[in-house]
């Protein structure tokens, strides 16, 4: 059972974990030991609340297929247990990050003083450049 928050949790039947062989160089055990983990999570058929499902499916993430299946591959650790924990933690973080509602931005104006200072600096810079010109006699 994976607890997302105080009220939301996922059952073990919703998360499909399978062991696969890790990619890349790994020495003598690389072709024998299946230490990497594939985590598959079907978003539409899960027990998550509707709000969570909508937000997850709206994410522009390459790990979510068109069918709404989230696939996470964990292979950074040497043992299968650590990779399993890593995959579950990444699933939890993804769900929590999708649910966070961004604060709406209110457009602001530059203050009168800041506008005045900017214009004064521009004028001063222009005068400095004007002094660099050729002197006519």
TrEMBL record:
Region span, Disordered: 106-137
Molecular function (Gene Ontology), one example: peptidyl-tRNA hydrolase activity
Q: Which InterPro entries match?
A: Pep_chain_release_fac_I, Pep_chain_release_fac_I_sf
The residue ranges of the Prokaryotic-type class I peptide chain release factors domain are 21-37
GO biological process entries: rescue of stalled ribosome
Source organism, top-level taxon: Bacteria
What residues form the membrane-spanning segments?
none
In terms of SUPFAM superfamilies, this protein maps to: Release factor
> PROSITE patterns of this UniProt entry?
RF_PROK_I
Entry similarity comment: Belongs to the prokaryotic/mitochondrial release factor family.
This one is known as Prokaryotic-type class I peptide chain release factors domain-containing protein
């Amino acid at each position: 059972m994976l607890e997302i928050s105080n009220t939301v949790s996922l059952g073990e039947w919703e998360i499909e974990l399978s062991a696969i062989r890790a990619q890349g160089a790994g020495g003598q055990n690389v072709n024998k030991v299946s230490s990497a983990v594939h985590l598959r999570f079907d978003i539409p058929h899960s027990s998550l609340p509707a709000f969570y499902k909508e937000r997850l499916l709206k994410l522009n993430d390459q790990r979510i297929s068109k069918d709404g299946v989230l696939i996470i591959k964990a292979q950074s650790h040497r043992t299968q247990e650590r990779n399993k924990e890593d995959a579950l933690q990444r699933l939890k973080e993804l769900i929590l990050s999708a649910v966070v509602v961004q604060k709406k931005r209110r457009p602001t104006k530059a203050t009168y003083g800041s506008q005045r200072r900017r214009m004064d600096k521009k004028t001063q810079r222009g005068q400095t450049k004007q002094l660099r010109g050729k002197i006519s006699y």
